[in-house]
Description:
Layout: E1 4-6, H1 11-15, E2 18-23, E3 28-33, E4 46-47, E5 56-66, E6 71-80, E7 83-86, E8 98-100, E9 113-117
Antiparallel strand pairs: 1-2, 2-3, 4-5, 5-6, 5-9, 6-7, 7-8
Amino acid sequence: MPKFQKAVDSWNEKHGETYLFQCPGCDCSHRISTTLGKRKEGPTWTFNGDLDKPTCTPSLLVRWNYGQDQTKQVCHSFIKDGKIQYLNDCTHKLAGQTVEIPDWEMKSRCDVDVIGEDND
Length: 120
């Protein structure tokens, strides 16, 4: 079963070719865009095309506010050879760890503010 899933929703027209994956740190999906689409600006990632052992660059930085108190959440990672390397600035329990990307299963999306960073 693949770890990345090509998005087939209206997001693609605006944001370009997009892939989703399940983030076990956030317990929701994140997405990367590999082309710009109609927006003509914003972050894009290189992707090796392997849905089972994906690698993409640069790092993926996702930020959002959560709950009634709007607590700031951060998920910052590298994706290499089908694994997620979580960086220490993550606010979830997997900060500093490297884990396998789970097989694709749409749970929910939490990719409110996705920022690409060149931290290789």
